[in-house]
Amino acid sequence: MAKQKISFQCTECGYRSVKWMGCCPECKQWETLQEVVDGPSKGPLGSSGASGSRSAVLVPLTAVSGKARDRLLSGISEWDRVMGGGIMPSSLIVLTGDPGIGKSTLLLQIAHQLAQHHKVFYFSTEESLHQVKQRAERLHCLEHEILFSDLADLATTINLCQTGKPDMVIIDSIQNCYVSDTHTIPGSVGQLRESTFQLMRMAKEHDITVLLTGHITKEGTIAGPKTLEHMVDAVFYLTGDDRWHSRILRAVKNRFGTLNELGFFEMKEHGMIEVPNINEYIISDISHSPGSAIVAVMEGSRPLMLELQGLTIQSKMGIPQRVVSGMDQKQVVLIAAILEKYLQVRLSAHDIFFKVSGGFKIKESGTDLGIALALLSSYFQQALPEHSLALGEISLTGQIKPINHISTFVREAQKFGVKRLFIADTQKLEQCTINTKRFKNVFELLNLFGND
After folding, report:
1. What confidence tens digit (pLDDT) does each residue in 260-311 have?
2. Among 148, 164, 253, 372, which residue's CB has the most CB atoms within a 10 Å radius?
């Protein structure tokens, strides 16, 4: 019998060491090295049919079928869009999020919809079948047949899938699965790596789509080794927004779709209800007050209207404060420096507090004009015209520059009642019915506040 070797692996970067260390020398994170037991692996098909026992065949790409495969469509548009137009067959997908955020609820609804036209296996490793049935009754997800199990033994799970040949396998969650021939506990680094690898090979070799749920750490990343994200085809995060009691599904990795695509749901008594017009919620909740400005950003393929909130106040400290939430602090500081340089507004002597409303995080430079208007609006204590949208980039010389995706933003703005558009003088527009005001440089921004 081969001797097992014990090593320690970092859960963040994958660094390995023969002895335990408090701090990982590679990524400098503390308490991330966990014990890993290396032993002979039986492969994803178990001891009776390891994948290595198959005869190897090499083929040219011209001999591989180029026929496009139909994706697995759930009929829930928000989910299907984030997946990239439906779930790609034979893929391995991870859905993660905070405990109690609604992962199991959403997956049960997705499984119920897919079961109309596909064979679905659902393995609940965290809850008993009685608990799953209670949830299914509450969600009205008993009309279409789904085969359930509360097994956590991965070898048995894989054998059932190979025998039953389902189109979709859902495992909730991967942290509770265990490989019986290893000596580590479920949820450890070794178990997660081995379990994910075996499921990946099953998905590719047997044409079975696998969807896993995973826990996240307090930092908001997938619990377990960082290499887990590299082994799977797609990673999706489900997060909550207390302001609208909504759930946001975000694609952070997707080999078959657009990154950073967003889907919006609202948690109701009978499950997750999709919210296709999230901009209607956002715009209706925007306050018309000094320091508020509306901008638009692209998240995947969808435009979002977001409110920027700025607050400037005369500093009583030696070094003025700069508190920014939802965007890069350097971007706000840079715009403040440009305004002070060319408009002679002494923002360097003011504390600046800035945030993106709704808990969103944005990085686009097309929000520069909105940042400038929010800061000036707070500085002069004058609100911008109601329902106005700012779209523009600001150069270091104070010039207002055009942005991309302007046609998409304008169509969305016209749909939800934006009354005025602030853009660059050189921005090209087509079929715009909104009252438009153009700016060449930051000097002209003062005209909005009654200053010469």
Report:
1. 888 989 888 888 999 888 888 777 778 789 999 999 998 877 888 999 999 9
2. 372
